[in-house]
Structures are given as structure tokens and as C-alpha cells.
Amino acid sequence: MTAPLLAVRNLQVRYGDLIGVADVSFEVAPGSIVALLGSNGAGKTTTLNAIAGIVPASAGQIEFAGRAIAGEPAYAIVRKGLALSPEGWRLFVQQSVEKNLLLGATPVGDKARIQHQLQRVYAVFPRLAERRKQQAGTMSGGERQMLAVGRALMSEPKLLLLDEPSLGLAPAIIETMYETFLRLHKEGLTVLLAEQSVDLALEVASYAYVLQVGRSVLCGPARDLLNNPEVQRIYLGVG
Amino acid sequence: MSSILLQVIVSGLLIGAVYALFSSGLTLIWGMMNVINFAHGDFVMLAMYTAFLVWTAFGGGPAASVPIAAVVLATIGVLSYFLLVRHIMRGPMLAQIMGTFGLALLLRYSAFWYFGANFKTLPDTLLGPPFVFGSIRVDAPRLLAGTIGLIVTLSLHLILTRTALGSRMLAVSEDATAAQLMGIRPEHMQAAAWALAAGATGIAGALIATFFYTSPTVGETLAIVAFVTVAFGGFGSVPGALLAGLLIGVIEAVSAFMIGPVYKDVIVYTLFVLVLWTRPQGLMGKA
Prior knowledge:
The complex is a heterodimer of chains A (239) and B (287).
Chain A: E1 6-15, E2 18-28, E3 33-37, H1 44-52, E4 59-64, E5 67-68, H2 74-79, E6 82-85, H3 97-104, H4 111-124, H5 126-130, H6 141-153, E7 159-163, H7 171-186, E8 190-195, H8 198-204, E9 207-212, E10 215-221, H9 222-226, H10 229-236
Parallel strand pairs in A: 3-8, 3-9, 6-7, 7-8
Antiparallel strand pairs in A: 1-2, 1-4, 4-5, 9-10
Chain B: H1 3-33, H2 40-58, H3 62-88, H4 93-115, E1 131-133, E2 136-138, H5 140-162, H6 164-174, H7 176-181, H8 186-208, H9 218-233, H10 238-258, H11 264-278
Antiparallel strand pairs in B: 1-2
Helix pairs in contact in B: 1-5, 1-8, 1-9, 1-10, 2-3, 2-4, 2-8, 2-9, 3-4, 3-8, 5-6, 5-8, 6-8, 9-10, 10-11
């Protein structure tokens, strides 16, 4: 088996006395799509934020491409090839769509490569090309989601972290979005996906981990989890 | 229009452009990081003394003192950011106010200590005779100061709105955490903002020194103008500072001419209060 691109071991994140993540471990193999599942409050967002470096891990290890990255600042982590499309998108709403995308390309120094990547993102999301001059703050929810993903892609990541890409979107847009993820995956991108919607995530993911109140409690190939009654139980909190 | 009135308006616009320039540094720092730099006026004062030193050291005029003051003040701006502002930003609002206010006093009394309390002026002849355009006469220092003031203020605006640096600086001010996710180091952008703001203030100070007396307390006088200009134009807006600076310059000049020099401040501050009454965010500020 090849070495994992991302390995998280016994991650713990505390906010003062509150424990956001108690004990989470998982791996992402290069070239795979891995889903982090769990209901609201299970610790998916905190886990992704800790990996990207915007919240500090209080214990545990995070290894990316064989190197420990826990404790490094977020601006250094993205330069290593790990990009996060964060919860709530966090776009620069006062700036244009194109400027948001170009900001995403900050880690890429070479102008020609940035232009190439910009055209690639526009090819993936033609809507963004149509709205390139528009202020990000004036866009619809679906367009904002596209922009957040496009902006993360601009840094030419090896690993893309997606936090709830389906949240608040119309079903038709969600479908297009997920088709896009599959396409990017076929082009060689590794994806770690946090989703509340199990069916959606397991449709595209090859492997999945289920989080429950800050712990990774279950894992397996997506196709097995789809029919696992335990997943239902964790989600619905019954039994 | 009478040629005298035209003359008055032109001199108002020229001084207004200088107001705009030395106010844009203040508004830029506020827009970037919600910090009011109470030492702003004293930055202008340091730039004026820099111009004075350049002249006493080797007889240099604005061609030397403007770039030198820009570099000196940009350096002081970056140092102020790393040694003081970066730390007090984590504290409560009052700590921020007292912090930059303390810096103001430090700079002011250092100037007393080093330069003494006497007013210093550069020679009137430094820039040659007044320019004459038809019926309008303009003193050379004011023409130079107004023109460069306008150019530098507009350049500052273009840097903020048209360059990658400006976009990254704005990104940090919008959401510093999201900016980090882009690979931007917020501290670097904030330091760049201090360099730009203080550098522009340095240019303004070196220009003002060519037609205004220099003393350790001159910063107080100028800071009031800067605060009024920034509040009038809208906190955080460089185009607002430009518009407000030009307006204040013209209103001052015209009311001094029509009503009397004694009343010009009354007129300006009355209008200022009226504007803030109806539009508290300033002319071009965000509500």
C-alpha cells in the first residue's frame, strides 16, 4: 500500500474548556476521495480547520506528504499543497470574482501558471467566467460555493479539503458540483470531503470515516458503509 | 467668474490636495486594520524635520527631501507596526488608543529634545519665483505640493484597487483567517500598509515643509485637519479623503476670501458637523 497523502492521528482540538474534537484518526490515500461523515457538531469542520491550520491542534499528529504540519501557520500549509474550501465559504466579498480567484493563486509565483490555472477553473465553472468582474458579495449561494472551490483550486493543491459543499444549495446545483468533484478527481486531485449528507458523499467517495461527538467511530469503503445500519444509528442517535 | 475668485479656488484645490495626501495614510491604516494612528500628525512633523535636515545637510530641495522623507517615514511606519501596533492590536480598544497616543508623545518630545522648540522654516527661494498662468499666480512650493499631493493620492488609490498587493491587503482587512488560507501572511500585508501609509505621509510632510513652519508641535495642528478630512470623506476610503481634502481646501480658501480669514475654520467645521449629522459615515464611507 502506498503511503497516505494525509494522515491524522489522535487529533484533539480544544477551545478553552470545550472540546471540539476529542480523538480523530484517519488517512487519505493519494488519488482517492475520502469522506468525513457525521451529524452537525460531530467535529468535521473543526477537523478540517485544524488540518488547514486555522485552529490549533491541542494534541495528536497531522502528517501531509510524509511531513508533520500540526502547529504550522495556515499560510505555510497551503503553500505545501493543501487547500481548504472553508465552512461559510469566507469569500472576499468586496472584491471581484476574478480577484478572489487570483488571491487563491498567491502560493503560485509564476504568472503564466496562474493564468493557465485561471482558465482551467473557468472551464470547470463557466458561470464564474461570466461573472468575473462581479463583486463576490453579490453572488448567489451556488455561485459562492463554486467560487470558494475554484479559489481553493487556484493554489494547484495536491489535496483539496471541502467543507460541506452541498450546504444550502439547490439539488440541481449540488449534482453539478459533485460531477465537478468527480471530474477533478479523474484529473488526479485527491479530495477530503466533509458532508452531512451521507448518500451524496458515499456516492463519490471511495472510503469514508464517520465522526460522532468528536471521535472517529467507524470507517470503511464507501460502498460498505452505504448499507451499514450502524451509520444510520449514529446519525439518528437511536439504539 | 472674477479672476481673484478663480485664484482663490486654485489655491484652495492645491492645499486641498495636500490635505488629501496626508489624510490618506490615516484612512488607509483605519481601513486596513481598524486602528486609529494618533501619531499620524507627528509622522508629518518628522517628515518636515527630515526635509529640514536634508536642506541643512547639503542644501537639498524637494527633489531630494521628498524621496528621502518617503523612505525614512516608511521605515518608521514599519517599525511602529512591528514594535508597537502589532502587539497593542491584541489588546482592548483603549490600549490601542493609548499606544499610538504614547507614540505621538514620544515622537513629539524627542523632537523638542533634539531640535528645540524654535520654529524652523526652509528658505522661500528654495523653489524659485511664483508661476503665472494668465491672471493666476501660484507660489512654486504650493503648486508643487498640490500637484504631487494629487498624483501620490491617486497612485495610492490605484495601488489599493489595481494591484495584487492591494488585493491581498484588502483581503487581510476583510478576513485575515481566510487570507491565510490563500497563503497570505497577514502581518506582512499590515506592515506593507504601514509602509505605504507612512511613506505617503512622509511625502506630504516634506512638501508641507516647503511653505509651512516646522516645530515639534506642528503635528497637532495638522492632525486635526487629517482627522476632519478622514471623517468627512469616510473612514477607510482613500477617494473619500481626496474628495474631502479638496472640498475642505476650497471651502477654507473661498470663505477666507469672501467672509474673512478669521471665519474660515468656523465655516469648515460647521459644514463638517452638518455633513456628519446627515451622513455619519462620511461622504464615501460605508454605512
